[in-house]
Amino acid sequence: MSPSDVQRPICIIGLGLIGGSVLRDLVARKHPVYGYNHSTSRTRIALKQGFDVTDNLPEVLARAEADGALIVIAVPMNAVGSILDAIAEHAPTCGITDVVSVKSAVREQVQQRNMNDRYVGGHPMAGTALSGWEHSQKGLFSGAAWAITYDYADECDARGERVPKFWEDLFADVVRMTQMVHAEAVPVRVANHDAAVARVSHLPHVLAEVLAIVGDNGGILAQSLAAGSFKDGTRVAGTTPALVRQMCETNAPALVDALDEALHLLQDARDSLAAPQPSIEELADAGYRARTRIDARSGARKESVSPIKISSRPVLRLHPGAPHWVGQLRQSESLGGRIEIF
């Protein structure tokens, strides 16, 4: 195990698209990793493919506790609470991270169980419209942003307290895990994360659903004439409705703010087009400038639900526990930068 790798085994709870893809990448790196899947049939498939997985949750958590493993929660938001309860019972000393797309709701569940000091939140900005173990794949996270939360350290620092060594080591290993799957770790506090993903991940789902409905209402002719722009704009409408609901409904306050802003822009465009001299100049110019700025900042991976590649962003080489390291995280967050552990 090299110094740049996670310094403990990894136990992944939930082997769908994201959890399964993490498992595949870590196995390819020959890192000790095992997992749990609620689906017995999919567990059997993964076992036949040679992966170390089980459908027995207490058993795998007891193993994680014995190993001192890093536990990765990769289940839908509505299952997070029960998984945390199981961890509290069967793996009471393990460090925890997650890959859920909304962070405030997860952190609230963590705080309710007094697990703050052994939790570091995470969210990989990668995926497809498909779900399940059978759609997991190696290389899914290559070049993608992976948000990593540090609210606990930020609160300790604000009180003038030293961040506990256990949490510092946990944070370092979560960052190392993202490096092992070739993602880019981006430090962010929970509220800022949820506000940002409302704009760049959850609002696109709402707009895609609307566009798909409007296009479909055009009947057979509209469907037959639909080309690239329509298909690009509606691609994530192919995501399982239950997943869309969990993402959007658990981030409702931030999503409503983003939706209000979008509705205001759409209303202005509608009024301009309904004028005696129809015009969409203002919206088109502003949108073109915004897209140009985004393209200059990031590259896109077409297959990803939330395609962000951030190799052009500033990099901070971080040593958790060093003087002022939490302040460095805040500075990196303000720049949208990425971090590496050394």
Description:
- There is one protein chain.
- By secondary structure, the protein is an alpha/beta fold.
- It folds into two domains: 10-190 and 308-341, Rossmann fold (3-Layer(aba) Sandwich); 194-297, 6-phosphogluconate dehydrogenase C-terminal fold.
- It has helices spanning 17-28, 40-48, 57-67, 77-90, 104-112, 151-158, 165-180, 190-217, 219-225, 228-234, 241-249, 252-273, 281-297, 325-334, and strands at residues 10-13, 33-36, 53-54, 70-73, 95-98, 119-120, 122-124, 145-149, 184-188, 315-318, 338-341.
- The strands form three sheets. The chain has a six-stranded parallel β-sheet with strand order 3-2-1-4-5-6, sandwiched between helices. It has a three-stranded mixed β-sheet with strand order 7-8-9. Strands 10-11 form a two-stranded parallel sheet.
- Strand 5 (95-98), helix 5 and strand 6 form a beta-alpha-beta unit.
- It starts with 9 loop residues before the first strand and ends with a strand.
- GO terms for molecular function: NAD+ binding; prephenate dehydrogenase (NAD+) activity; prephenate dehydrogenase (NADP+) activity.
- This is Prephenate dehydrogenase.
- Keywords: Oxidoreductase.
